[in-house]
Amino acid sequence: xxxxxxxxxxxxxxxxGWVPKECDCxxxxxxxxxxxxxxxxPSTHAHGVxxxxxxxxxxxxxxxxxxxxIRDVDTILYETVKEAFQEQVEELERERGxxxxxxxxx
Length: 106
Hints:
The chain is mainly α and 106 residues long.
């Protein structure tokens, strides 16, 4: 996912102060990889914590409540955060004179 790659790169750049080659697509994306040292692999990075989201069961009443009450607010929050993230990406790219990759480079 492009946003996950950019998120990882932005965090790395903000905390270390330098841009890893896997994140810099200023001159194109010649060597795209899915096997970067910066990428996230749940099988090795989950630290033994099991994800239970798929097994969480709700009642029909809870589902209706989610649809009626939470969805509209969640949509507003999602769109606001998506816009703020894009602004942060553009700011970092401007400051550094780079173009962040949608996928990691070799």
